[in-house]
Amino acid sequence: MDNKRYLTIKEASEHLGVSRQLLYKKKTRFTKYIKVVDNRKVFDLKGYDKNCDNQKSTIVNQFDNQIIRILEDQLKSKDDIIRELNQRLAETTQLIGHHQKMIEQKEEKILRLEEPKKGFFKTIFNK
Questions:
Q1: Local confidence band at 75 (pLDDT 50, 70, 90 cut-offs)
Q2: 50/45 Cα distance (integer angstroms)
Q3: 40 has which bridge partners?
């Protein structure tokens, strides 16, 4: 008997942490791994491990897919936020440009008002 492949029912119950009765019951998840080798009932550990690995892979794939969906949703949300912030930035930049023009115009008016005015006679006689 290849010890790496098969365990006695007692060894299998200790290895798996379940009772021997559970391994012997007809309709459990372990039933399909009970084999008869050399007129002894044994537990097919490699078959069980392979099945567990497949189940783990399936669970990991499902978990990965859930994480991917969550991350894609978050990415879409963040894209929407970035798009809105860029739009606000463009509007703010445009407003700043308008305010700067208004400030320049007001400064020009102030400078014109501060220029000494020529009197009536100076304008006529240009002196």
A1: very high
A2: 8
A3: 37
Alpha carbons within 13 angstroms on the beta-carbon side of residue 59 total 6
Most confident of 10-14, 53-57, 117-121: 10-14
Contact 2, 35 (CB under 8 A): no
Secondary structure (3-state) at 42: strand
Write the burial class of residue 71 (CB in 10 Å: 0-12 exposed, 13-18 middle, 19+ buried): exposed
Q: Render pLDDT for 17-36 as a digit per residue (tens, 0 to 9).
A: 777 777 666 556 666 667 77
Domain ranges of the chain: 6-114
Q: Which residue is listed with tokens 């440009």?
A: 97
Residue 37, beta-bridge partner list:
40
